[in-house]
Fold each of these.
Amino acid sequence: MKGFKEFIMRGNLVELAVAFVIGASFATVVKAFTDVFMSLLGKLGGKRNFDAWRPGDVPFGAFLTALVAFLIVAFIIYFFVVKPYEAAKARFSPAVEDEAPDANTVLLTEIRDELRRR
C-alpha cells in the first residue's frame, strides 16, 4: 500500500492529471472557436462544412473539413500555447552557461586532432 501511495503522490502523475484536465478544457475552447470560424467560412463559401462534397463518389469533403479544422487547431496551439511558452521559458529560465567539456571529451578531441595532423 505504501508503494501505491508514493506512486499516486509522485509529482509527475499530479502534473499529468492537471495537464489532462486543462487540455480537455482547452480542447472545448478550440472546438468552439473552430465552429465559429467554420461558420464564418461557410458564410463566405455558402456551406459550413464540406462533408457533402463527394467528387466521383469519393468523400473528399469530409477530409477537407477535417483538414481545415486541424489547421485551425494547430494555428491556435502554436500561437497561443507554444509561442507564449517559449517566450516565458526564455524570459524566466536562467541562461545556460557554456560548460567546460569533461576530461574524456578533451582527450578524444586531442586524439582526433593528433590523427588529423599525421
Note: The chain has a mean pLDDT of 80.
Amino acid sequence: MAAFIEHVTIDGDRWDLIAWTYYGSASAIEGIIAANPHIRILGILPGGLVVRVPLPTETVPVLPPEALPPWKR
C-alpha cells in the first residue's frame, strides 16, 4: 500500500501547484495524477477536492526542461 498525503484543494488549485507544494517541482505531476484516477484532469481544480499526493521519494519523476511548456522553462 502506497503512503500518501491528502491535500484538500482550494478554488484555483492546479496539478502543477500541488506538485510544487509537495515536491518542489511543478513538473512532478504524473504520480499525483496517477494516484487520483477518480479526478478529471482539469486545468484548474475546484475547491474541496481531496487529492492523494504520494509521499515524496528520491525517485519522484521530474520532466526534463525541454518537455515543459515554454512558460515553465
Note: The mean pLDDT is 85.
Amino acid sequence: MARQYKLKILLTDDESSIRKALREILEYENYEVFEAGSGVECLELIGKENIDLMLLDIKMQGMDGMEVMEKLNEQGHDFPVIMLSGHGNIDAAVQATKLGAFDFLQKPPDLNRLLISVRNALEKQSLILENKKMRRRISRVNEIIGDSDPIKNIRNTIKKVAPTDARVLITGENGTGKELVARWLHEYSRRNNGPFVEVNCAAIPAELLESELFGHEKGAFTGAANRRIGKFEQADGGTLFLDEIGDMSPVSQAKVLRALQENVITRVGGSEAIKVDVRVLSATNKDLKEEIAEHRFREDLFHRLSVIPIHVPPLRERRNDIELLARFFLEELAGRDIIFAGKSFSDEAIVKLKELEWTGNIRELHNVVERLGILSPDNIIDANTIEMLAMSKLEPDQFDGMLGDYEDFQEFKEASENLFIKYHLDKNDWNISQTADKIGIQRSHLYNKIKKYQIER
C-alpha cells in the first residue's frame, strides 16, 4: 500500500557534500528531507517541523552530535536518531547508545545498511506510537472536546509541554475540566507507562495531608499501626497531580516545596531521605496571586509549580463548543446504557443549551445531558423538553441520590418516570389533558401511569 504522506527525515551534518549525497538517496526512497549544517540550526528546525527520524553527525563544529542528543532528551523529543561518524570507535558507539541513539553508522555509510537502518527505525517508531494510541484507548481518557480557539490552544500547549518534565499549573473554575488536562499531559509524556496519582488537597484534612503526600512510619502518631507509602512515592516514575493546590496548609506547602527543590521526601515519623522521580502537575480554582498577597500561599512554591500555566476557560466563554460536548456526552452515555440509545438533540435544543448560563461548567452540562437522556419522553430531545427538564426544580442531590439508590435498571427507570410525571402534573396544576399533551403521551396512558405509581395530588 502506498504511503499517504512522506515521512520527514532531518540530515544534520556540517559537511554539505555528505548532506547532498544522503538527500539524493533518501528523496529517491520517497522521504521528505530537511538539512541542518549545525547543532543549533538542527534544534531550531526541530521546533518548526514534526521530524520522524534524524541522521546526526557526531563530529561537528560548535555543538557536536552528543550535545545535540542531550538537548533532544532534555526537550523530550522521542523520534529515532541514527548517529554518523567518520571516526567510528566503540566508545563513541556506546555513548551514543546510552543517549538513546537507534543505530551508529560509519561515514560514508554503506547504502544498503543505511536504508535498512532507516526503515527499521521508522517501523519501530510506528509500533511505539501505535502502542501509545492503543493504551490511550484502553485507559479511556476522554478527549478534550471543542473547536474554540482556547481549546485548540490548550491542546497545542499540551502536545508541546507534555514530553518535557516542566511543571504545569492548571487554573480555571470548578467543572471546567482541569483534571482532564492533567491526564492528557501525562498521556502524552514519556512517563505514560508510569502511574498517574491524584491528590485532592481540599478533600483531605490539613492534619492528614502530610501523611497522604509523604507517607508515615509505623507508630508515627496515634492510629499509625503500619507504615504507609505516600502519594509522592506511589507516583515515582510517573505523574503526581495536586488538585486544589490553593487549599493546601502552609505547613504542607513548605514540605512540598522542599520535595520539589530536592526530589527528596521524608515520611512522617521517619528520618530516611527518600529520592523520588516525580513530575508534579497542579490545579486550582483560586487566584493564587491574590492568595499570595493575602499571605495564604507561598510565592516561592507558586513559582516552582507554575513553570507552564494553562488556563481552562469557563463554558460560557466557549459556547460554540456546547453542541460538540452535548452530542459527545449523549453518545458516550448510549455506549454505556441502553436507556440512552437512539436519543439525540434537535437543532432548536442545541440553541437552547447554548443560551443557558452553565455556572457549573462542563460538569453541569454532563449532568443535564444525562438527566435529559433518562427523563425525556421522546428520542428527539427538543427545546421544550430542555425548558421543562434541564433546569427544572429537581434538585441535583435528589437526582444524584436516585442514581445511587437503584442497582436494577427497571426499578430506576420506574422511579425516574414516577418523579417526572409528578413534577409535570404539579406544574400543570393537575390538568391531565394539558400534562399529557406537554409530555407527549396519550391521556389514557397518563391515567394508567398515575394509577400504577399511586400518584396523589
Note: The first strand starts at residue 8 and ends at 12.
Amino acid sequence: MTGSWVPSGSVGYAATKAAVNQMRALAKDWAAKGVNVIAPGYIVTEINDDMWDLLIGKKLLADFPRHSAMTAFALDPMILYLVSDARAEVTGSIFTIDDGQTL
C-alpha cells in the first residue's frame, strides 16, 4: 500500500504483513536451514478479482507506478531461486516482489 491509506477491514492483512517482516527472528534461530521471505504486492486472484473494477481497486491501481496488479506467476522466478542451491548463502532476507507498488 502506498502512503498511510489503509482500507477498513484490513487488520488481518496488515497483521500478516507485519509478521512476514518479523521472520528475521526465525531466520536467526534456523540459520542452518536458511529462512527467507517473499513479501508480495497485490496479486489478482479469484478472491479479489471483482475489487479491481470498484473504486477502491481503481484507486490502488492509479497509485501504483505501473498502474497494474500482478499475476501469481510474477512470484515464480523468486520461488525457483529460493528453492534452488543458488540461494545457499542467503538467509534472513525479505524479497519484495511488488512491481514497484510500494514505491
Note: DSSP finds four helices and two strands in the chain.
